[in-house]
Specification:
Layout lengths: L1 E3 L2 E3 L2 E5 L12 H17 L8 H5 L2 H11 L5 E4 L15 H10 L4 E3 L1 E2 L5 H15 L3 E4 L16 H13 L3 E5 L15 H9 L4 E5 L6 H8 L5 E4 L6 H4 L1 H14 L5 E2 L9 H10 L14 H16 L22 H14 L3
């Protein structure tokens, strides 16, 4: 729990990882390229006081994660979003067994989400079913640009992916987190395009699609999709640290998101261990839209509370003290949300009138 100026903020970090990128786990040069790219983001977007050495960045371990998030970082609950990357790492990049064990040891603090790759066919479906039973899954993390043999990506709109979404629906896995936007060496930028979210969100309205990194640099594409699909959410992983290096760019990002999709569908994420949550939480609570950016309304304390934790807590059914709860906001004026209700009311009126 974070407190400042008499206000309390429930913090849910909706995108964290526990990875192992040490040389002994790197399968080939691409494993080194991938973690080196991560470290460049960390080094270039972090305050100097928050920088890690390259060696400690390769593997953080469970004890350090618990300290960085819950002892030092104000986090009340965090959600693992593991990336597998088996073509680059011998035992995978995200350490699912270690992460899942932490979540099982601290269910009040951690939720473990799993992953799937539709190119694994029926064997992958069986593995997903087994993981759902083992971990009581509420969500999965997808990496559409992940390499798989000769394939360098897949789409959410592929028939094979739809088969997995149908199984997610059967298993009660409602939250589909998907990396969309920033490319990471050696992965291909276009394989992270947000366009396929539109197809899947339309066809699976009972699933929540959390677009991690809000599609950056395709923020406009994301906003135009998300405003029309009420089951699409925006995750602020990677967008958050721009609050330090490019505050006006961050103001534009958060201002556009609030304009298009509103304050109830945006999730705070540190993307740990890319960055640690402490300085991001402190910076966001203190942040305000610059006065000369008059196209955006000032950020309110209620909006910050929702983004920092209440929105993700609601989707995941986390326990939040009653005194910290806030009501949903009215819908934004953009997009067709509410149109179905209007149509239903019109039909009711016509029926009553005998039309």
């Amino acid at each position: 729990m974070y407190s400042k100026d008499g206000e309390k903020y429930y913090i849910c970090d909706a995108h964290i990882a526990l990875w192992d990128a040490r040389p002994e786990n790197q399968r080939n040069v691409h494993g080194k390229q991938f973690i080196d790219c991560f470290y460049d983001y960390h080094r270039n977007l972090s305050p100097e006081s928050e920088l890690w050495t390259y060696e400690e960045y390769l593997y953080q371990g469970g004890d350090r994660l618990m300290k960085d998030l819950f002892t030092d970082g104000y986090v009340d609950h965090a959600i693992f979003q593991p990336a597998y990357l088996g073509e680059f790492y011998e035992r995978g990049f995200g350490q699912e067994e270690e992460a899942a064990a932490l979540a099982q040891a601290h269910p009040d603090k951690l939720t473990y989400n799993h992953h799937f790759d539709p190119r694994n066919g029926e064997a992958g479906l069986d593995a997903l079913r087994a993981a759902a039973e083992k971990y009581d899954l509420k969500g999965v993390k997808l990496y559409t640009a992940e390499w798989h043999g000769d394939s360098r990506g897949y789409k959410l709109s592929d028939p094979e992916t739809y088969r997995y979404f149908e199984v997610c629906r059967e298993l009660g896995i409602r939250n589909i987190h998907v990396h969309k936007g920033p490319t990471i060496r050696p992965l291909d930028r276009d394989a992270f395009d947000v366009a396929d979210v539109d197809h899947a969100a339309t066809d699976f309205t009972d699933l929540n699609f959390v677009v991690e990194h809000v599609g950056l640099p395709r923020l406009e594409d994301f906003c135009w999709i998300a405003t029309q699909e009420p089951n699409v959410y925006g995750g602020l992983a990677v967008a958050m640290p721009f609050i330090h290096t490019r505050p006006r760019y961050f103001a534009q990002i958060i201002g556009e998101l609030l304009y298009w999709i509103g304050e109830d569908r945006i999730f705070f994420s540190s993307d740990y261990a890319l960055w640690t949550p402490k300085w991001l939480v402190e910076s966001f609570v203190d942040f305000q839209i610059p006065e000369d950016m008059t196209e955006y309304a000032p950020l309110t304390t209620a909006q910050k509370k929702k983004i920092l934790g209440l929105n993700a807590a609601k989707v995941y059914g986390l326990d939040v003290p009653a005194e910290l709860q806030l009501p949903d906001a009215d819908e934004t004026t953009t997009g067709p949300r509410g149109a179905d209700d209007v149509a239903e009311r019109a039909q009711d009126t016509n029926a009553l009138a005998g039309v």
